[in-house]
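cron nightly-structures :: item 1 of 1
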Amino acid sequence: MFTHILTPIDGSEASFKALDEAAKLARSFGSKLTILHVVDTRHLLEYEEQEREDLLKKLRVRGAEVLKEAESKVKPFNIIFESTMKEGNPAEVIVETADELKAELIVIGTRGLTGLRKMVLGSTTYKVVEWASCHVLVVK
């Protein structure tokens, strides 16, 4: 049913739950899974150039750690997967990446690291649901 599934991951509990569901679906359908971490660069312009560069390096290192953890969680499923890191506005990058990959499904958590407990959907998840041209599965 789905040949390619995209799962964005930010290191939050919700994103790892989504990753688990995506891996199960990929195993069931024989799908390829792409794990995406987006370094959120929206607020970097608020910092001086040197601070911005230092912060960006730290965010990239953290992103690599998140992807490594995600890969270790997916390996036991014996599925075809790849991981990638991009930079920009998370919702925009997720939707653009899904289009580039021709993914038929995005599996995403309800709230990421910046989500408020009172919100049903985080702002990134809401935008992805609204903007994506493919199916989106939101995992609680």
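cron nightly-structures :: done
The helical segments are 13-29, 49-74, 90-101, 123-131.
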